[in-house]
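User: My collaborator sent over this chain with a note saying "see what the structure looks like." That's all I know about it. Can you take a look?
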Amino acid sequence: MPWNKYNMPKVGVPSDGKSLVKSACAKVIGGTAPDCGNIPVAITPLATGAVAKIPVVLAELTVQINVNSIITLPEPAIEIKDIKKHLKITQCLLIQDTNMLFIKGFIRKNIQYATAKCSTNEGICGDIKHCTVDAPFSCTTPVIFNGIDPLPIVPSEATEFRYFRKQDLKGPDFAEKDHLLSSDLSEFNQISTEYFNELPFCELISSRIVEFDELLNRTQPIKGEFPFEEKCFKKIEEKAVVYLTLKILQKRQVAVPALDGLRDDDYC
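Assistant: Without extra context I'll predict from the sequence alone. Here is the result:
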């Protein structure tokens, strides 16, 4: 069978006169160039003025959230090695006309702990394991709009209207010239108007978590040898104070004035 310089069979060369040898998998050899040059391109702004729809800041505030939870590990541990925390917000909703902000979320905690696999009176050996849990929280807080007030809510409307109808009257108590003058009860007419208001939304700026984690019910194993000062536990009580800084924004139409003495082609 013919071979090339890469010690691979040549493509399309018959080996037995009946079939062709399949090509090997593709191979790429290369790397990243150390430097890439660039040329600045002039930015062309709109100098004649415009009306833009952009988020504007309604308020910026720092919320204090108190969290108290109990975490149960899947197995006994002798020591907490590290706890990494990340704040996650799942709901940040401003109820307009009440100025009340509803916040929901959780603290994602990755707990690294040491276990006791074997022990004597002089020491303990084991593994370093981890457990990731979510400590949920929810709260409400009043908002002071230190930026700009939100747009007033425009409610939807439904207006019913009727048409005049003249009908003949028949019966012993009515004369031939009498008629029933009223609206038509055989139809229903309505004008419905629905307004789609801009919902305020939140952006997270920063978070600061101050916590105190306490190990509950630390006990020494009954069986086997164990150092006298070491104890095992499975439950952790978390007390945390979260300082969450956020912005409340709403999309608004903003007039951007023209730049005095400048035209669009001045930037070309």
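A starting point for your reply to your collaborator: The first strand starts at residue 50 and ends at 77.
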